[in-house]
Amino acid sequence: MSSATDNSAADGSGSNEPKQIRVVLAKLGFDGHDRGIKVVARILRDAGMEVIYLGLRQSYKNVVNAVEQEDADAVGLSMHNASHLTLAPKMVAALAEAELDVPVIVGGIVPDEDIAELEAKGVAAILGPGASAEEVAAVIRRSVAARS
Amino acid sequence: MSLRGVPAPELFERALDGDRRSLARLITLVERDAGESGAIATLAHARAGNAHVIGITGSPGSGKSTLTGQLVKILGEAELRPAVLAVDPSSPLTGGAILGDRVRMEDVASPDTFIRSMATRGHQGGLALAVPGVVRLLDAVGYNPVVIETVGVGQVEVDVAGTADTTVVVATPGMGDGVQANKAGLLELADLFIVNKADRPGAHDVRRDLELMLDLSHATGQDQRTGMRPEILLTSALTGEGADEMWRAIERHRTAITSNGQLEQRREHRDLAEVRNRAMALAELRVDELLRDGEHTAILREVSERRAAPAEAAEQIAARLRP
Fold first, then answer.
1. What is the ipTM of this complex?
2. Which of A35, A101, B164, B272 lies at a C-alpha separation of 20 to 30 Å from A123?
3. Rounded to two decimals, what is the model's pTM?
């Protein structure tokens, strides 16, 4: 049983390193376009975060369970079927109801005129198709930092 | 209601009362090896020891997660309170990870099931360094059984066998011939073999190769280590076929090792290994400290100028570990 690795010193006992950011990524309901969420999962992995990948056809309940049990710091919702105005605020409400204080970030196809409404209903940030990898990671980090 | 700043003993009390968020936060603290993790370990260790710990391991894509999902479904139907620890690898380059096991379990799990994904965070061997501590915590707050799903492993990542009471090795058709089955490593440590994807051609060939491997273990006397011949079962995790039988086989194994004293032996062995690993980690920190220490750069210079061999330098460092 090996215990010694190159990283073990950094992982070693007593160290109080900053908490690893853990993000739950999901698509709600019947939205089968999962190319984007896979790209985002990879972006966040390569930015050093831990992604709990739930993928397609998730319910609010599944996401709430995952955030609770995984002690996640943020939820990323990928939305490509124009359901964002309906589903994203409900997700925010479901998390609030479970007393889980984590930011919800929506990525995907969101018309500019919907952004204000989503923000008013508690969505922490919206990322569109033009967002760079650096931007995606920075927005997650900022949203998490704003809650802690 | 934020859990920030709630002291670990209070989180532990709440977790004992069934609060999942407090349990989840405790796991995070154990994973980080934060200041409070020592106190958590003490609280948890005093109450642990009731859960049967099942390790599920096998190569990437062999169906471990789907099979674990099926198992968890059966456990929920049996009105047990299972917990799952699903381990996936961290990137060696960035430390990030994609934890994709939960997605195969959530839908089939009962509300009493607790599922936690863990990244290896730099640890080799198929598990994360914090796994024993997290298993202890889940056990202490009343989850039973605790199922550990390892990262997809090759031949030598055998950590799980040192952590679980029952080690299940998942194989699939097309994994290689009988020579592969006779190589040393993971296969030697299985308590139960699952040939998954049994609906595919070649499943019976795999079973035959494993049977032959076990025959040879008997012939060489190696099987006396456990005193039991591991069962070999065929399953199809996608349809759930064989999953019931898998749970019954796990229970048979548990009953057998409980009555023949193996369970106690294994747990003693496990405690010893964990104490050793912890002590080694502390020693390693101390060595790193010494190597950073100014006066030891002199020793290192002797090595680089070829006046002392690396082993001699190491002995000088090791001598400094003694008080």
1. 0.85
2. A35
3. 0.88
